[in-house]
Write a structure and sequence with these properties.
This protein is α/β, with parallel strands linked by helices. Helices cover about 45% and strands about 20% of the residues. Helix 3 packs parallel to helix 5. It binds ligand C2E and magnesium ion (3 copies). One magnesium ion binds next to loops.
């Protein structure tokens, strides 16, 4: 087919593009069946308190194990699901499954919040907040145990609807987190109006902390901004002890990253909490002797 190439010139046939389109169609059909075929699962990554290093919450991260192509990253299939109109269905499954897992943790006496990522199109759904409320009720969970993570860029896309949805989430008693903060284009005025309860410093700033004065300044500014707005400040993508120490000094409330644990299964998470350490070959030691 005809299309514009990167430099804006018309090219008559781009085999790479055709191949990509074929792959997309193939994937979309498979994705439609993925829920029923039980190819989707949730992994959980802990958020830890920056003072006590205790686990306070678990973020649900969606995984798709394609029967032929293996693991497909959410960065690939979430946008695909959105354009194919499948994200509503996937998103409802994620909320339901997160509540089911959270209820099982609660039954074991573990007091942890569960955090779920909400996509751009989910934010447009009229019944999103009602659906979350119903799921929580069905599983006997309190709303203050549940966090919705919405990326800064999505929150800033349709500020008016986002603000209204944030308000409904907060009045239900949910926590609302602005994810990947610092990479979008927030106007500070819009940020001030958003009734969020948490700010997550994007991992791009965390990654460069030890080597870049600029990254340190930006991270420290984001932390102060969050604190000044009375938000809980979380840093994502913490991989080294050096980053961890700097973020603690800056006053981050919670930390998340491979230093503590990779995303793991619900069962592994239970084991990790009960033993106070990561147990699973994939996870790094979660040690009290970190310092
Ligand atoms: P996110 O919500 O910002 O999640 C953090 C991502 O960073 C996850 O990637 C996680 O595995 C990865 N990560 C965590 N700690 C570290 C670290 O220390 N170093 C590095 N390099 N990476 C780390 P993942 O699971 O591939 O998810 C990517 C994005 O896809 C998520 O970003 C989120 O925006 C989206 N996503 C994942 N699950 C869902 C879902 O159920 N629904 C929706 N709408 N989006 C989802
Ligand atoms: Mg997130
Ligand atoms: Mg994030
Ligand atoms: Mg991120």
């Amino acid at each position: 087919g005809a299309g514009l190439n990167g430099e804006g010139k018309v090219c008559v046939y781009d085999p790479a593009f055709a191949e990509e389109a074929r792959a997309q169609a193939f994937f979309v059909n498979d994705l439609r069946a993925a829920v029923e075929n039980k190819e989707l699962r949730l992994l959980f990554q802990p958020k830890v308190d920056a003072q006590s290093l205790q686990i306070t919450a678990a973020e649900a991260l969606l995984r798709w194990q394609h029967p032929v192509r293996g693991n497909v990253a959410p960065a690939v299939f979430v946008p695909m699901a959105e354009s194919a109109g499948l994200m509503g269905m996937l998103g409802r499954w994620v909320i339901e499954e997160s509540c089911r897992v959270a209820a099982s943790w609660r039954a074991m006496g573990l007091r942890m919040r569960v955090a779920v990522n909400i996509s751009a199109l989910q934010m447009q759904e009229e019944d999103l907040v009602d659906h979350i409320a119903q799921c929580l009720e069905r599983h006997g969970l309190q709303p203050n145990r549940f966090t919705c993570e919405i990326t800064e860029s999505v929150a800033m896309q349709h500020t008016d609807t986002a603000t209204a949805t944030f308000e409904r989430m907060r009045s239900l008693g949910l926590h609302v987190s602005i994810d990947d903060f610092g990479t979008g284009y927030s106007s500070l005025a819009a940020l001030r109006r958003l009734p969020a309860s948490e700010l997550k410093v994007d991992r791009a700033f965390v990654a460069d902390l030890e080597h870049s004065e600029d990254a340190r300044s930006i991270a420290a500014s984001i932390v102060s901004l969050g604190k000044a707005l009375n938000l809980k400040v979380v840093a994502e993508g913490v991989e080294t002890q050096g980053q961890c120490e700097l973020l603690m000094l800056m006053g981050c409330d919670e930390l998340q990253g491979f230093l503590f644990s990779k995303p793991i299964s619900a069962e592994e998470m239970t084991g990790m909490i009960n033993s106070g350490s990561a147990d699973g070959p994939e996870s790094l030691p979660f040690s009290e002797s970190l310092f």
